[in-house]
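Q: What does the assembly look like in three dimensions?
Context provided by user:
Components: two
Sequences:
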Amino acid sequence: MAEPIIVIEGLKKSFGKLEVLKGIDLTIRKGEVVVVIGPSGSGKSTLLRCINFLEQPTAGRVLFHGEEVGQRLVGGRLVPLPEKVLDQQRARMGMVFQRFNLFPHMTALENVIEAPVQVRRMPRAEAEELGLRLHRRVGLADKASQYPNFLSGGQQQRVAIARALAMEPDVMLFDEPTSALDPELVGEVLQVMQDLANDGMTMVVVTHEMGFAREVGDRVLFMDGGLIVEEGPPEQIFSEPRHPRTREFLSKVLH
Amino acid sequence: MDRFVEHTINILPVLLEGLGVTLKLTVISAFFGTLLGLLAALARISRKPFLTGPASVYVNLFRGTPLLLQLLFIYNALPQVGIKIPAFESAVLGYSLNSGAYIAEIIRAAIQSIDRGQMEAARSLGMSYGLAMRRVILPQTYRRLLPPMVNEMSALTKDTSLASVISILELMKYSSQFVSRTNLAWQTYVWTAAFYLVVTMSLSALASRLEKKLEARG
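A: Here is the predicted structure of the complete assembly.
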């Protein structure tokens, strides 16, 4: 088995009195594509956001390459790690958001090379070369000099994927990457993600696209009520779901 | 008509001298006020109590008391505890502190109007908070900052007319002195108003040109 990249142990997250994650254990190995499905409010996005510490776990821990992310348990209390350490951890995890979150005051290419230049101190010429290569990879070689507002949703999301890839991450986190898109634009984004999976990228994908989960996922997790209710290879989850809640969910989304 | 020309010839050099002081006071105070405002805004949104506390006290203090009182306090009260500041420097200090408090709220509102996802995207790429603020968040506020900042700068220009209470000779003071000397109230005040208008309207014109430039990005 490939080495684990992310190990999650006893992860809990509460927002005030509302417990959104109630104890998650999960190991993600190198090259694996893990697809997280489940009804809204089941905690899928929160789980993803805890991995790179956009949300601070209330209990438990997330290990990235064996190192705790964002905070460490010291004497029974969670103590934040130095910001610098967290920044370095995040630099190696790419994230793609539902609403793209491209920087509107920068061109597509500037979006892609911003972090390599500013964080990794890559020379600008080298970064631009990398940026153009990534633009070609997501099929947008001709859009490099456009500002995000002049791109379609699908194009914006592909630039966002290129932007995350520019840091050469060890894992890519996708938070409902196609949920904000018009239906006819979903395919082009899923295609880029599938290519990425074929290239061996480790991916955690929160999505409602069951076709993608079935065809690209190595493993599918079904979450409900803040817990992983069932997990397994896509063939098993989609053909013979074991848990009644999985069956109920799938019967609603697959019709 | 001859008399009108004659009055004008007499008034203008006097008012121009006053305008020079007004502009100097405005520009220097605007510079320090903006700097202070930016620092106070960043402090207030920092979520660090040792920064938010003092910044809030500062903003509330200078927005909640009259500017006139602040100027008089700096010039008349501080010397009593051994802090003597010359008149012009006192005025700069007063106007910088006062406009800084308003500018802090303008900048804070602009920063908080930027979508939270922008900061998250920047941080998820490994950018530090400071880098994300400088490269991603603040540049997006410029366009939104322009209209309220023009307001603030216009207000500052006009408020410098209060500086005469701490013995600064600026446009308004030259103007009123000229009136009491010559009794030419009508002409003098109209010319004075015109001078203030030229300054504030140039500010607006500059701002709309900047706004158009920033809009080009769509």
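Follow-up: The two ends of chain A are 36 Å apart (CA to CA).
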